[in-house]
Design a protein that fits this description.
With 91 residues, the chain is mostly helical. It has three helices and no strands.
Amino acid sequence: KFGPITFERDRRPMFLQEVTPPSSREFSEETAKEIDKEVHQLISQTYCSVKDTLESRRKILEKIAKRLLEKEVIEGDELRRLITASADAAA
C-alpha cells in the first residue's frame, strides 16, 4: 500500500538496555495505524495460505510425523519416497 517507503525508528543495539525517552517519529499516528493495518492484513493472508497448504497436505505430513516418531531421522531419499508415494496415492 505504501510502496517503496521506509518508516524507521531510531536504531539501537539490542544488547544495550539503557532507558531513554521515546524518540519522535518520522510519521503520524494515522500512518502508524495504516502500517499496523497493512502488517495485520499481510500476516492474516499468509496465515490462511499456510494453513490451507498444511491442510491440503495433512495426510503426507501425518505419515512423515509417524515415521519420525518411529525413526527420529529421515534422510533425503526416504523423505522423497514418502512424498512421492503419498502424491501417487492421492492422484
